[in-house]
Fold this sequence. Notes:
The chain is built from 7 helices and 7 strands; from the N terminus they run H-E-E-H-H-H-E-E-E-H-E-H-E-H.
Amino acid sequence: MDCKSSSTKQRIAEYTLRSFPFSADARSRVLILGSMPGGESLRQQQYYAHPQNLFWHFMGEFFGAGRELSYQDRLEKLKSSGVALWDAARSCLREGSLDNNIKNAQPNDFDCLLRAAPNIHSIFFNGRKAAELFRKLAACKFPQTQRIEQITLPSTSPANASIPYEKKLAAWRTVLEATKRGR
């Protein structure tokens, strides 16, 4: 029984994932919230690291924060443009990279984020799973987020290939528009 218990604990540890610290500061006006970084992002320790993920294409188009910049320069460019990044879940169990495989998710500390970035007026969810996790895990624990506009955008993940690029780009343009409010 101890062997089985030890084996189960080891398997759980192998699939327990942890999100990154938030990228935000007092200049942040909008928050782009993912669910949990995918496998490639976790390997590289960078948000949206999969080369086919459209996130950095869109950020390059809107804010000059494309893949031609170093990762740290992209994050700084976003912060200087009023954009914060984070994930709904602090940790979870998941095999592979698909959001549908997320189990036992624990919320990030949105109270801490909002103290560091008190000017956030909009949350943009990168896909339905991010919105679902936030509403399930965090919205009730951090009621101050209820005063913040919340918009679900089509996921930039390569797994969401059914929506054409142009349609996703048009939807994501609302992020750019939101950064212009509240200056």
